[in-house]
Amino acid sequence: MAEQKAAGWNRRDFFSGAALLALAVGIPMAVVRYSDLDPTEEPSDRQRAMIAGVSQLVIPRTDTAGAGDVGVGDFVVLALAHGLEGSRAPVALDAMPNLASHRRQDGSLRHLDWLEMQLDQRAAGDFQKADRGRRVAALAALDGEAFAEGVRDHPWRTIKALILTGYYTSEVGGSKELNYELVPGRWDPDVPLTPGDRAYSSDWTAVDFG
Prior knowledge:
Helix content is 44%, strand content 0%. By secondary structure, the chain is an all-alpha fold. Helix 1 (11-25) crosses helix 4 and helix 3 packs across helix 4 (72-81). The two termini are 22 Å apart. Residues 1-9 and 27-35 have low confidence and may be disordered.
């Protein structure tokens, strides 16, 4: 799990996340690069380290880099600020406990504030300082709750979908973790599949980020 200390919201970090955001939503990089992030949306150093580490837990390093390694945490910060996955839609106060204290004036949820509190509670202390086993257990418990039968609108589902989107629209996720073939490419009417074959990132009918 990546545990590099966040060094502040600097230009390099912003551009890394901005590049993924532009790629994921199909807008020019310049639009994201030069649109100032609302100061109230800037994450704390602890929150940046948290979302980078959480991203790495969701997609850990194997023979390819993990989600935290490729800057997905900063993508998630920008994506939440720009309202991807409906993250700036108002949430109902009775949707689940502990949402009221993390709502903006427009009724939307401050997802990073909420996630920080949830993980600390589930780790029975400081999530960032907990050993890997406790961090995995805390996140697994939250994931199990979010994807339980009958649950639909849960903040973690939004965050996890953004982690997956950020990773699989990155160079590593799209061309190394997945197979990539430039379209139109070669026409193969019948392609044999074997166990362990990876999906093609250029085949959007076969890729589901969430």
